[in-house]
Amino acid sequence: MGRMQYTRDNMAGLLRGHDINPTHQRLEIAHALFSRQEHLSADQVMAIVNTRHSETSKATVYNTLKLFLEKGLVREVIVDPSKVFFDPNTTPHHHIYEVDSGKLSDIDAEHVQITGLPPLPDNMVTEGIDLIVRVRRKD
Amino acid sequence: MGRMQYTRDNMAGLLRGHDINPTHQRLEIAHALFSRQEHLSADQVMAIVNTRHSETSKATVYNTLKLFLEKGLVREVIVDPSKVFFDPNTTPHHHIYEVDSGKLSDIDAEHVQITGLPPLPDNMVTEGIDLIVRVRRKD
DNA sequence: CCGGAAATTAGACAAAGTCCAGATTGCTGA
DNA sequence: TCAGCAATCTGGACTTTGTCTAATTTCCGG
To answer: pTM for this structure?
Structure first.
């Protein structure tokens, strides 16, 4: 079973599959995230999408990322107090955050077990569990 | 064993115990956090400290919170993409975050077990593990 | 009382993100 | 084809959180 290739061609289907009208800008932004399979901030997405010449406005980048988030196409990773990262990997997984460099990488959730969490009140549902391992370079 | 009372009197000792020169402003800020035992943002701290009349500048609030953080007197909680919370509870514990209301509460780490995390590269040390349970009100 | 180090301050600045009113795009149905 | 309409996109003003700096104030030891 080969790794999915995220070409611009697949992208439209991916968006449609999530109930998102595949416009030019949305395709560009999706391609930026999915072809790299990396955690990107809104700023980084904007830079990538506008490398050749300015094509997509700041407002659209923010709107689109928010839309992707609502539609479950990407995940939000909140580790850096100064900016949000968007993660094209929506499978269950956790994160390692290098505090000095800001580098963010994935931990597959498959073998990680979290036990002993207290039960939630009846009127509450878990939306997600974020586990972040903050690491530092030894000196 | 009674709960520790965080009066302004104890506060000076608490600061000194963490190698912090207890100035008037620092005592006020520490008192705001420790008497409440709540998670507060810099903004909230500033509001509390300046209720009667403006006494402490924004720069000092930010500087002081950063100092407290470095000296291990408080912890930083990064859950809200728009602001950092400061936590006077430095014992090992995790957090429940109500996404709608922004309400943040503690989970004692005592009974929580996290297993199966992959080993870190040799040149890395864990600085801390943040576990955040994001919950939503059922409708 | 003096001098210097530590702490505080006001306010300018920076960066991330939001908002809005107007312009563009792309259908859809006659 | 094309008028009309909804969805989308845009520049730019604005807000909020946080940082920086240069000048002042506070606090001590001698």
So the answer is: 0.92
Closest residue by Cα to residue B77 from A58, A81, A23: A81
| pLDDT tier, B126 (very low <50, low <70, confident <90, very high otherwise) | very high
- Which chain A residues touch B if contact means CB-CB below 8 Å? 76, 78-81, 84, 96, 98-99, 107, 111-118, 120, 122-138
- At residue B93, does pLDDT exceed 60? yes
Query: Rounded to whole angstroms, how far apart are CA atoms A62 and A55?
Result: 14
Beta pairing class for B104-108 and B40-41? unpaired
* pLDDT above 70 (res B3): no
Write the DSSP string, A68-97.
Answer: HHHTTSSEEEEEETTEEEEES--SSEEEEE
Half-sphere exposure of B131 (CA within 13 A, CB side): 17
Strands A83-87 and A75-80: antiparallel
Between CA B84 and C1' D12 the distance (Å) reads 28
* Paired tokens of B20: 């912090």
Average pLDDT value over all residues in chain B: 93
B137 beta partners: A124
- How distant is the alpha carbon of residue A27 from its chain centre? 15
CB pairs under 8 A between A and B: 105
> What is the Cα–Cα distance from A2 to A25, expressed in whole angstroms?
28
